[in-house]
Amino acid sequence: MSTKGLYGNFGGRYVAEILRKPVLELEEAFEGWKDDSDFKAEFDRYANEFIGRPTPLMYADNLSRQIGGAQIYVKMEGLAHTGAHKINNALGQALLARRMGKTRIIAETGAGQHGVATAAVCAKLGFDCTVYMGTVDIRRQRPNVFWMELFGARVVPVASGARTLKDAVNEALRDWSANFTDTHYLIGSALGPHPYPAMVKEYQSVIGRETALQMSERDLNVEALIACVGGGSNSIGFFAPFIESSEPRLIGVEAAGLGLETGAHAARMTGSGGREGIIQGYKSLFLTDNNGQVLSTHSISAGLDYPGIGPELAHLGKAGRIEFASATDTEALEAVKAFARYEGVIFALESAHAGAEAIKLATKLPKDKALIVNMSGRGDKDLFISAGALAGPSWKEFLAREAEGEAGDE
Ligand SMILES: Cc1ncc(COP(=O)(O)O)c(C=O)c1O
User: Fold this and answer.
1) Domains, the chain, ordered by start
2) Gap from CA of 228 to ligand 1 centroid (Å)
3) Which terminal residue of the chain has fewer beta carbons within 10 Å of its beta carbon, N or C?
């Protein structure tokens, strides 16, 4: 294996013989177009016209006043088209796939946001699109399945294993092995075999570049950037321009689920944490048992419910440049409520984990310090989960009435 794509002890490219050709072809294409000015101009044009970039940086003045500590700012990435940061990477990879002459795109999705982003970009750029999704995720993120199909994608239910993201990845890898001549596999997080972690970081770093500019325009005294960490794409993109310097602090927030002590969580860097392993083409930290088998995970947010973490984050966490914290399901829901009540914005449950950490940390800091939290997505997609948890019996009665109405119409 080449040393490219190694982050300290992590990363690399561990793929079956059959996939060597497409990953090498992808690496060559990515390296070839990375600094090309026409490619960048095309990315910027779609980013501006289709995604709606730049996304705003909003001062959460009411909530900050309420807390009485540091000023909380929100990078409003959820205002990007299709509702989350996933669209930045989907656009970058699809433009690359077009230059590689591919006509078909496949993807995996957990929360559905990556699937929706990919399906939208495929509709816009004219690709045939197939999305693999675990049947558990299909149930909890049903609205996103509807949008993907409306954009013309075929959503393939995956009923193996835990029926969540990692199982969808396995199915997508199988498809790619059989069809790579005309098909690009558009991975949705900063993980997988090299060049994926580097490529996803590159296309997501638009978030960090904009943030750096917005910080300096307002002359903010930023103590920390805070982002939730599933596989790690929104966090590494947000942190990218700051990694080489020693400040501000960079904080990744994992899902503590029902509590770190319960075992029902997805925390690979906090608590007892993950173990080294090589899974799905890369070396990193994974939640596994003593025999190296992947453990099932739990989070109220489908997008954080993944047993592995991107290799660069694992490395930077071990090296101390990125700090890790965790928030429980309950803390995430409380953060959704706080930002909705005081700021009129509805965080995705994933981003709400970062929001919860921002609220905790703000109380410990003086008023002249700023914290920037990445709202990686907005909460529309979580309506059925958030309302189920927060609105109580009236929501369940509403659903039952709707279902009765549907049945009556048949
Ligand atoms: C809104 C949102 N935030 C965060 C994530 C977590 O992914 P990542 O860590 O790659 O940003 C997801 C994944 O689906 C998501 O939908």
Assistant:
1) 6-48+86-196 (3.40.50.1100), 52-83+205-387 (3.40.50.1100)
2) 8
3) C
Model pLDDT for residues 202-253, shown as the tens digit of each residue: 999 999 999 999 999 999 999 999 999 999 999 999 999 999 999 999 999 9
- Sheet hosting strand 370-374, strand order edge to edge: 57-59, 71-75, 370-374, 222-228, 249-257, 322-328
The number of the ligand 1 atom at minimal distance from the alpha carbon of 110 is 14
Residues of the chain with pLDDT under 50: 1-2
Measured from the Cα of 188, ligand 1's closest atom is 10
303 close to ligand 1 (CB < 6 Angstrom):
yes
The model's pLDDT over 146-197, given as tens digits with 9 standing for 90+, comes to 999 999 999 999 999 989 888 999 999 999 999 999 999 999 999 999 999 9
Has 312 been annotated as catalytic? no
Contacts for 31 with CB less than 8 Å, ≥ 6 apart: 195
Q: 89 alpha carbon to ligand 1 midpoint, in Å? A: 12
Q: Is 86 a catalytic residue?
A: yes
pLDDT at 338: 98
Query: Ligand 1 center to residue 77 CA distance, Å?
Result: 11
